[in-house]
Amino acid sequence: MADGLVEFLDYLKRQQIPFTIATASGLNNLKFFFENLDLGKWFNIEQVVYDNGLIPSKPEPDIYI
Predict the structure, then answer these.
(1) Residue 49 forms beta bridges with which residues?
(2) d(CA 29, CA 23)
(3) Cβ pair 49, 21 in contact under 8 A
(4) Cα separation values, 17 from 12, 30, 53, Å
(5) pTM listed for this prediction
(6) Cα(9)–Cα(52) distance, rounded to whole angstroms?
(7) In angstroms, rounded to a whole number, what is the distance separating the alpha carbons of residues 44 and 39?
(8) CA-CA distance, 51 to 5, in Å (whole number)?
(9) Is the dihedral of CA 47, 51, 54, 55 positive or negative?
(10) What is the CA 1 to chain-centroid distance, rounded?
């Protein structure tokens, strides 16, 4: 992970500032990163926006809006 990212995510969580992930990756990739980077400490996988085939993906901005 990038330098300072863990501290930043911990800060957001402590301050109860809502945040999530928006990614053009599919569910299999999402699960891989959750398992290998222990993302469950900061993110609820159920709230992550990913490419499930329902939202237009890159280059459309819909997934981030």
Answers:
(1) 22
(2) 10
(3) yes
(4) 5, 22, 28
(5) 0.77
(6) 25
(7) 8
(8) 24
(9) positive
(10) 13
In whole angstroms, how far apart are CA 36 and each of 2, 8, 12, 41?
15, 19, 21, 12
Q: Could you list the pLDDT tens digit for every one of the 65 residues in the chain?
A: 789 999 999 999 999 999 999 998 999 999 999 999 999 999 999 999 998 888 887 788 888 88
Q: Kindly report the CA angle at 1 between 63 and 29, in degrees rounded to 5? A: 45
Residue at token pair 């999402």:
30
* 22: β partners: 49
The full DSSP string for 7-60 is: HHHHHHHHTT-----B-SS-HHHHHHHHHHHTGGGT--GGG-B---SSS--TT-
